[in-house]
Fold this sequence. Notes:
The longest helix has 44 residues, at 406-449. This protein has 512 residues and is mainly α. It contains 21 helices and no strands. The protein has helices spanning 19-44, 46-53, 57-85, 87-104, 111-126, 128-139, 145-157, 159-171, 178-181, 183-197, 213-233, 242-264, 278-294, 299-308, 313-324, 327-338, 345-363, 376-398, 406-449, 451-454, 462-498. The protein starts with 18 loop residues before the first helix and ends in a 14-residue tail after the last helix. The model is unreliable at 1-11 (pLDDT under 50).
Amino acid sequence: MTPAPTPAPPPPAPTPFTGRLALGLVGVLIAALTSGINDRVTDLALVDLLGHFGLGHDQGSWISSVYAAAEVSAMLLAPWFAVTLSLRRFAIVVTLLFAVFGMLCPFAPNVESLVALRILQGLAGGALPPLLMTVALRFLPWHIKLYGLSAYALTATFGPNLALPLTALWTEGADWRLVFWEIVPACLLGAALIAYGLPQDPLRLERFKQFDWRGALLGAGGLTLLILGLTQGERLDWFASPLIVCLLLGAALCLPAFVLNEWFHPLPLFKVQLLERRNFAYGILTLMLFLFVGLAGSAIPSAYLGAIQGYRPLQTMPLALSIGLPQLLLAPLVATVINRNWVDARYVIGAGLVLLTLACLGGAQLDSSWNRDDFYWLQALHAFGQPMVVVPLLMLATGVIAPMEGPFASAMVNSLRGLASVLAGVALENFITAREHFHSNVLVDRLGNQLSQLAPLLPADSAALAGRIHRQALVLTYADAYLGVIAVIALLALVLLILPKRAYPPQPPRLS
């Protein structure tokens, strides 16, 4: 007779939620926030950093590009390694490595070593945000799961808006090396809390026999090629550059092959089948598009005030804080509201989109007389609208994910979110360049057609005239940027009407 197959081992018993475990989760939150903030701070301080390293703009752009590529690639792989090497051990190691590589960056003797350190730091830092979602889905009991997801939402609403104030502090009168070293205390605290609070899982080295090597090479390679091509495209004139053509063509070949491989692999990095669940697909798509909307609350006002009014980062800092700091209260408040069976999270998202639309409509009215005070009411709308979108979409997306599927969901959400963050920055940069050229040409044509009537009003100095044209073109460009964000919000509203289904907050487990 054929022996009966050995039954599969039962799933591990849920870990009791204690104060010690809560501290461990706080440690992961600190590490993940630190990673996201460091990414933005080093990008915002790039011009100052290049001067200290004696590097040019072209070299500096590659430093940012390789860091972003390494970061997103690590987001793809981190959940698999966390399960294999144990979540606690992996989280401690990557948190400490992230701090160590950051400490070493200011001592880089040449550009090659600086690039290598930034790649290594990007790999370590990119591994941290996926761990936050993984631990939230695994350890949080049903009655506080939404509050854990609201903590994850801080990485999209609080962290990016804290980066500008920190950049201002370190580049305006402080030691520039603090741009890199600021992460060290937070990483040490995060690692200590993780070591104290998270349970120690056994090593599962046997998983390496089934490791998706082909998927790792195709996925990480394709994302790297795509991010390098996108971030360097504007500088190298896109398809006029053979390098950009090769990078984007390589990405176009690798990424579809990666998706196909993941569909059939027995132990994939991406469980593509999760996208068949409408609420999960909605959550990923909306989170990616939301990163474009978030630019209207941070990047556009700071860019306008810097270019038009000559503000330094320290002077624009209050605008970012007016969005970032309220998130510490508003994100849990939104979680409290949607943690009611009678509240439909889709309507909360819709209300948030309305607030964000009003903020962008107001921003589209800006002119050259606007200063920092004119933006505060727009920032207030963003402060309320952003968590009303992000926290409910996380509830919708994760509500259809079983605990054992958490690592798959985390890899997909975070790597695609990281890619979307790069896309949003590239889109804004290219949009501003294209619209500024358009408005400059239109203004010059109009000036030429009405030169005889306007001659008495124009300055005699041609440089001053060119400066006024450039200034007005930028004002019109930033107003257009707000209108562009409204188009993205309209797409978000359309997706909200079509894709997600009614979902309820986490429920207590049923007794058998």
